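Q: Give me the 3D complex with pyridoxal-5'-phosphate.
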Amino acid sequence: MRYASVTDRLADLGGAKWAVHARARAMKAAGDEIIELTIGEPDVPTPDQFMQAAARSMQSGRTGYSNGRGEPGVVAALAARYTARRGRVIGPDQIMCLPGTQTTLYAILRTLVEAGDEVLLGDPMYATYEGLIAQTGARTVPIPLRPEHGFRMQAADVVARITPRTRVLFLNTPHNPTGAVLRAADIRALGDVAKAHDLWIVSDEVYEDLVFPGVTFTSPLDFADLADRTVAASSISKSHAAPGFRSGWCVGPAEFCARLLPLSETMLFGSQPFIADMTELAVSEPSPVAAGMADRFSRRADLIARQLAGVNGLYVHRPEAGMFALVDVRATGLSGEVFALGLLDCQKVAVMPGESFGAGLGGWLRLSLTQPDDRITEATTRIAAHAAGLLGNAA
Ligand SMILES: Cc1ncc(COP(=O)(O)O)c(C=O)c1O
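A: Here is the predicted complex, encoded as structure tokens.
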């Protein structure tokens, strides 16, 4: 039978990236004791008050159809939140609610690009981004994110890759997997490039509330002169430890939202009113769990950096936000994937190979910071032992 070409475009972008994780899960199922530092999920349950709010809403009868934009209460709450945070008026006509950042980005890209277009995307990148772009038929043009710049995108690297087909500059701040947070000066310079070449700026800000102590988050939405070309996406998945609720949104120009609306209606026929009610509560006040997570993840990143400092040529990149730390294992001469598979087999520690996040992270590992401190300490001890064994100087 014949299938649409989108199925071919997405076929190679899924499972292979998660091979180490899948192998770790299979080993676990077979009875192995594995320290799993692969995926990052909030390390606390969804706060009870939000589950109660969703349950109360359901029981009060809020289980009917909604509309394509989102329930008026949550849309108004998001408009108020973004107006307060971004320092300029953002109205309800600039908000669209969709099921999670992932679906939101899917819909945003569907609204902005198609076959023949090019999207500029930092490399390394979050594992689903290439698929998000490929589903539209557009082409991903990787922009190298370099450790010497703290993995922050540089305007000069962007300019060098712009062609007449370039439509979108895709940002992710705070960044997964590097934990980099763009500075105001970075965004100013990138915004000037976007203006000069008439590009959209799409900004995935799902880790906004997980910036580490002392780090300041800046959004392209903060710049009034970028407002007509910026669309930011986020959700309560990370900030409120509620990924299963699939509750996200985007903020963009009113015309953009009007264009996206029929697409949302076509895809979803509206979202769930009881989840909208719970999200309205969640985004109306500071998250009760985000600051604690940021503190813990920051401390664990320090722990890893301290433990691996000077060990067998390993280098730890200190994140500024998010749920992950990066370890450079290139000194072992192995790819991240070969190192990670060996580490799993010999030391029973599961980490993500850097290659799963783009060629730019070849020879690196990504470690989730969501396990308790003692597990992280044990994992880094085993990583050091594995590297020592590879280099033939095990103590
Ligand atoms: C950078 C990034 N964007 C988006 C997502 C997906 O978020 P959501 O649960 O809101 O769809 C994730 C999840 O890990 C992520 O790391």
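A quick observation: The first strand starts at residue 35 and ends at 37.
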